[in-house]
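To whoever is on call:

I kicked off a structure prediction for a single chain this morning and the downstream step that reads the tokens threw a length-mismatch warning. I double-checked the sequence; it's 318 residues and nothing unusual in it as far as I can see. Pasting both halves so you can look.
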Amino acid sequence: MSECERLQPTFEAYVAGDLDESALGPLLAHCRGCDECRRLVELHRDLATLASRAPQPEEAELLAMESHVLDEIGRARREPGRRVVLPARSGWFRLPRLAAALAASLLLFAAGLGAGRLAWGGSGGDRSAALADRLIAAIRADAAGNQRLADVENSRFTYSDVSFRRAAEGRVALDFDLTTRVHLVEPAGSDLLQDVLVQSLLHPSSAGTRLKAMALAPPGMTPKTREALLFAMRRDESLAVRLGALTALSERLGDPEVEAAVLEALREDPSVQMRLLALDSLALHDVDRVRLREAIRKDPRPGNEALRVRLAEHEKRL
């Protein structure tokens, strides 16, 4: 049994407000190392905060709401794949849209646990599948709460690169990329921060964001950060980003792969400025001068004369 599975009753007690204080410490300690469990705890905290701001319902309305929710959970258990539908907003039920979406997300998670479809770790320990199920549940709940165009415009999810195709039995297959805006403050060396910095170099973002990502990268370069910088130095369309990646990698010229990539930039980069910086970095790290001269001569192109002059200056300093 995984640690997540072992703590499942503890988490359910936390959500229900019945958790003994002595069990809270181990749960939070586990959440610090488990992104999936931490997100669920944060989801419940957000929901509790937003719900506390809502006006209290009349007892009759609350009973009607409870009856409807229990009916929907029962149907979801009997009909796998069925979407849980919350009552339309009316009267007291005017929670902020985010609260409604969070409530629906948590409700769907609970229904999935009851039906055995969203057990911690999924079948065969496939936690990714369980996380995907919860994400889909959240975006369905968000869509169900979007009643007007303004709701869609302010949705916490954004869809891009969308395609549609007809499927059997009057259904439609959807393919799309999904983004959602998240605000976090992370320690400078956290795994999440490094992952976001790396992804900002690999996926479309502004050149300014890519430069800032490199500036904020922690001093101890992880393998994924190194590979992302190599990718940016070789392929980024922005000269400023390529120069920034080369500057960051210059500290790792003792790595054969980094040295080979910088030599490649010296030979092939279209920018004379980039090639000059590559030459300076290699020369300052005592890379064999014969290799540098060969890199300059191998493919004659504009700027080679300036490179030869710069190389001669480095050789005079020896």
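Update from on-call: the warning came from a stale cache, not from the record. Cleared it. Sanity check on the structure: Confidence is low (pLDDT under 50) at residues 89-125.
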